[in-house]
C-alpha cells in the first residue's frame, strides 16, 4: 500500500490529491494521496508522523517549502538554488530526499515548437517571489539570453538576481519596477508569477495593462502561472492581440508528474491527471 501526502497550511484548496489519486487508480497501484493540514508549529511532528507511518513521500506547499529543507537528509541542486523544496521522497531507511519539480513543470509545459523559438531571446518575468525563482532557472534552461524582472519589490528582485548570477554565469538579468506602461517590444516571452488574476480578490486585475501588451511582438508567448481561472485578465488581453497563451495548469500537472515519478519510478497517465484536475477547477 503506497502512502503519499501533501503538507501545507491551509491545505483545503489543494488540487494535488485529486490528480495523484486519479493516477494511482489508473495505474492500478494500491495506495492513496492525502492532504494533511500542517500548521507551522506542527511541521516537525508531521514529518516524523510521515516517516513512522510508512509514507513513501510527500509534497510540500505554502508555508513549508523553505522551512522543510532543514529536516532533510539531502536536497537536489535545483531545490538548493531555488531555496525551496516541493517534493520529498522517503526511502526504506527513512532518509528524506528533497527536490523541486517546478522547473521541470514550467519548462515542459511550454509546447516544443515555442520552446525552440526562445533560444537567445529576451524574457520578462513579473514578480520576484518563490515561483519566480523556478521560472528564472527554467528560462535559463530554455536558452534565454536576457531576463528582465518586473516587480513591485525591487529589493527582492535584486536578491533573486544575485542568487541566479551566483549559479549561472551566461545570463544577463535586469530589474525594473512593475508599472502601467512597460515597453515589451523586445520580449519573446512574458511570465506572470504573481497571484494577480487569480480567483478571489485579484481576479479582475492584470499585472500588465493592455497598453503594455500592445507593445509585444506578434509571436510572443504570454505564460500565466495562475490556473484558476484558466483564462485570467492577462490572458484575456493577450488573446485580443492573438498572442500565444499558456496558463499554469500544465505546469501544475507536470510538476506533479515529476513528483509521481520520483516516488514510484513510474510515469503516470498525464491525460487522466489533467481530466481529474479540470473537473475540480
Ligand atoms: P509568492 O512567493 O508569495 O510571490 C508572489 C509574487 O507576487 C511576489 O513577487 C509578490 O510581490 C507579487 N505580488 C503579490 N501581490 C501583488 C500585487 N498586488 N501587485 C504586484 N505584485 C504582487 O508566491 P509564489 O509561490 O511565487 O506564487 C505566485 C503565483 O504563482 C500564485 O498565483 C501561485 O498559485 C502560482 N504558482 C503556480 C504554479 C503552477 O504550477 N502553475 C506553481 C507555483 C506557483 P511582493 O514580494 O512585493 O509581495
Name its key features.
6-stranded mixed β-sheet; 6-stranded parallel β-sheet; 20% strand; binds NADP nicotinamide-adenine-dinucleotide phosphate
Written account of the structure:
The longest helix has 16 residues, at 249-264. β7, α6 (130-141) and β8 (146-151) form a beta-alpha-beta unit. A 6-stranded mixed sheet has the order 2-1-3-5-6-4, sandwiched between helices. Strands 9-8-7-10-11-12 form a 6-stranded parallel sheet, sandwiched between helices. The chain is an alpha/beta fold and 281 residues long. Helix content is 38%, strand content 20%. Bound molecules: NADP nicotinamide-adenine-dinucleotide phosphate. NADP nicotinamide-adenine-dinucleotide phosphate is lined by residues 102, 105, 127-132, 151-153, 156, 178, 193-196, 198, 225-227, 248, 251-252, 255. NADP nicotinamide-adenine-dinucleotide phosphate (NAP) is lined by residues 102, 105, 127-132, 151-153, 156, 178, 193-196, 198, 225-227, 248, 251-252, 255.
Low-confidence stretches: none
Mean pLDDT: 97
| Category from helices, strands and their pairing | alpha/beta
**Separation, N- and C-terminal Cα atoms:** 29 Å
Strand order of the largest sheet: 2-1-3-5-6-4
Gross morphology: globular
H-E order? EHEHEEHEEHHEHEHEEHEHEHH
Largest sheet: 6 strands, mixed
The value of Rg in angstroms is 19 Å
How many beta-strand segments? 12
Number of helices: 11
Strand content: 15-25%
Helical coverage, percent range: 25-40%
The distinct ligands, each listed once, are:
NADP nicotinamide-adenine-dinucleotide phosphate
Amino acid at each position: 500500500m503506497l502512502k503519499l501526502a501533501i503538507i501545507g497550511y491551509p491545505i483545503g484548496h489543494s488540487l494535488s490529491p485529486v490528480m495523484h489519486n486519479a493516477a494511482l487508480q489508473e495505474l492500478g497501484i494500491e495506495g492513496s494521496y492525502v492532504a494533511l493540514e500542517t500548521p507551522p508549529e506542527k511541521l516537525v511532528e508531521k514529518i516524523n508522523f510521515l516517516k513512522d507511518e510508512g509514507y513513501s513521500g510527500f509534497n510540500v506547499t505554502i508555508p513549508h517549502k523553505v522551512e522543510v529543507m532543514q529536516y532533510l537528509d539531502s536536497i537536489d541542486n535545483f531545490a538548493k538554488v531555488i531555496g525551496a523544496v516541493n517534493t520529498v521522497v522517503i526511502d526504506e531507511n527513512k532518509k528524506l530526499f528533497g527536490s523541486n519539480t517546478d522547473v521541470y513543470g514550467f519548462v515542459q509545459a511550454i509546447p516544443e515548437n515555442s520552446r525552440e523559438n526562445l533560444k537567445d531571446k529576451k524574457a520578462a518575468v513579473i514578480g520576484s517571489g518563490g515561483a519566480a525563482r523556478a521560472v528564472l532557472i527554467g528560462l535559463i534552461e530554455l536558452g534565454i539570453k536576457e531576463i528582465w524582472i518586473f516587480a513591485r519589490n525591487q529589493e527582492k528582485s535584486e536578491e533573486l538576481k544575485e542568487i541566479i548570477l551566483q549559479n549561472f554565469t551566461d545570463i544577463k538579468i535586469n530589474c525594473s519596477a512593475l508599472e502601467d506602461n512597460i515597453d515589451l517590444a523586445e520580449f519573446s516571452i512574458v511570465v506572470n508569477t504573481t497571484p494577480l488574476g487569480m480567483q478571489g480578490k485579484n481576479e479582475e486585475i492584470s499585472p500588465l495593462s493592455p497598453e503594455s501588451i500592445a507593445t509585444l511582438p506578434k509571436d510572443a508567448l504570454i505564460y500565466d502561472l495562475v490556473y484558476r481561472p484558466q483564462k485570467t485578465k492577462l490572458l484575456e488581453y493577450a488573446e485580443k492581440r492573438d498572442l500565444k497563451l499558456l496558463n499554469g495548469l500544465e505546469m501544475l500537472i507536470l510538476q506533479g508528474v515529476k513528483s509521481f515519478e520520483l516516488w514510484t519510478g513510474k510515469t503516470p497517465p498525464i491525460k487522466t491527471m489533467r481530466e481529474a484536475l479540470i473537473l475540480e477547477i
